[in-house]
Amino acid sequence: MTYIQLRTALPGPRSTEWMERMYQSVGKAKAEKTLVPAIIDYAKGALITDIDGNTFIDLAGGVGVLNVGHSHELVVEAIQEAAARFTHTDYTVFPYDSYIQLAEEICRRAPGDFTKKAAFMNSGAEAVESAVKIARKATGKRGIICFEGAFHGRTLMALSLTSKVVPYKEGMGPFAPDVYRVPFPYVYRWPGHPSEEEVCKQALEHLERALYTQVSPAETAAIIIEPIQGENGFITPPPAYLKGVQELCRRYDILLICDEVQTGYGRTGEFLASEHYGIEPDLITLGKSIAAGMPLSGVVGRAELLDAAGDGSVGGTYVGNPVACSAALAVLQVYDQERLGERAKRIGEQIVARFTALAEESSLIGEIRGVGAMQAIELVRDRDSREPATEETAEIIKLCLQRGIIIFKAGLYGNVIRFLVPLVITPEQLDEALDVLTNAIREVEARNANPACV
C-alpha cells in the first residue's frame, strides 16, 4: 500500500487561490515562508491531505505537537464533550475538575521523590516565563543561566534565553537583563573534537566558571536547560552531563529548570527526557504535545516553589483552558493505552538503522544522533572539516516536499534534518517516508558531485 498520493503539482490550483489571499491579508512574519506550499483539508494519524487531494506523510508533527497524531478519536471526543459543557470561565474565577485532574496526573508522572504541584498556561514560552518568575520569587535571586544553542520561546524573557539570533532575535532587542549564557556540550562540534567524556568535563567546568566570572551563586536563581536541545538540532549531551549540572545546582543552592516542551510526552521513549538522564529537576516546563494541538502548557515542580509564587503572580485570562485540559487528559489516556513510549523507541531504532546504512555510502551524513524517536541527522560537505551542508539540506527538504514528505530542518547552520514524527505512525508509513528521504539525499549528493549533469 502507498500512503503518499500526489494528484497535482504544489501548490495545487485550490491551494494557489487561497495562498494568494493569504499573501494579501496575513503578515509576512507568518505567511512568507510556510514550509508546505499548500492549504490543509484534513489530517489523521501521520497523514495530511490538502484541499487539492494531495496526501503527505507527516514527519514534522506540527513541530513536535502531535505525539498522539492528528485528530485522534479520543482527543476529538474529549474536546467535543468539553466544549459542549463550557468553553471558558477563567480558572481563578470558577475552577473546573479537568484542570485539577490534569495537575494530579502531571505531578504523578514528573520525576522526583518530593511533593509536587502544577500550573497551566497557553504556550511553551509562557511556561518558561512562568518558571523563571517562580524561581526568582521563591529564591529572592535574579540571575538565570542558560546555554548556547538554546531555544526557549519568543516572548521577552524566553527570547532572552533563546540563543539563535536569526531569525528569532535580530532586531528584537533590548532583551531581559540578568541572563547569562554558557556552552552546551555539543560533542560533534566541540573545539578540538575531544572524547565525549572530555567534552562533558570541559562543559561542566565552563558552567562552574560562570559562577565566578559572570554571576555569583548568591545572585543566581536558576539554571534552565533543555535535556536535548531541540531547535539547535537535537543536540544530545553526554550521559553524565545533566547529572553533573544537577549536582552543581545542589552544591550552590541554585534551582534546576528543565525545559521539556519539545522533549516531553514520550518523544525520547520515556515520558520526560529527565527520566532518561536520571535527574530530578526542581521545575519542569511542558508544552507542545501536552494537548495534541490545543493551546496549553504547564509548569510542574516542587510544591513549595509553586506556592512561593503567590496568588495571581503567574497566569492570564485563558491559561489552563477547560477544553484544552480535557484534551490533555485524553492525550495521557492515549499515551498509556497505546504505549507511545515503547513506540518511540521502535521509531528511533527504525530511523537509526536506515541512516546508519546510508552513511556507509553517503558522505553527506556527518552524525546521526538522538534518543528514542527524537532523532536527527547532521549533514556536512566534508566529514573531516565538518563544513555544514546548509544549501544541500534545503534542497533535500524541498525534494521531500515535492514527493509527499513533510520534514524540516534545525541547527545553527540549518544543516540538520530532524524527526518529530507522530508516535502513532505505522512502520510501513515510516518506511515509505524514509525511502523518499534517503533517495532525496542520494540525488542531491550526486547532483552536487556532478554539477555538469544537472
TrEMBL record:
The keyword Transferase belongs to this UniProt entry's keyword annotation: yes
Pathway: Amino-acid degradation; 4-aminobutanoate degradation
EC number: 2.6.1.19, 2.6.1.22
Pfam families to which the protein is assigned, alphabetical: Aminotran_3
Database matches in SUPFAM superfamilies: PLP-dependent transferases (SSF53383)
Keywords, ordered alphabetically: Aminotransferase, Pyridoxal phosphate, Transferase
MF (Gene Ontology): 4-aminobutyrate:2-oxoglutarate transaminase activity
Cofactor(s) this protein cannot do without: pyridoxal 5'-phosphate
Catalytic reaction annotation: (S)-3-amino-2-methylpropanoate + 2-oxoglutarate = 2-methyl-3-oxopropanoate + L-glutamate; 4-aminobutanoate + 2-oxoglutarate = succinate semialdehyde + L-glutamate
Homology family: Belongs to the class-III pyridoxal-phosphate-dependent aminotransferase family.
Name of the protein this chain belongs to: (S)-3-amino-2-methylpropionate transaminase
Lineage: Bacteria, Bacillati, Bacillota, Bacilli, Bacillales
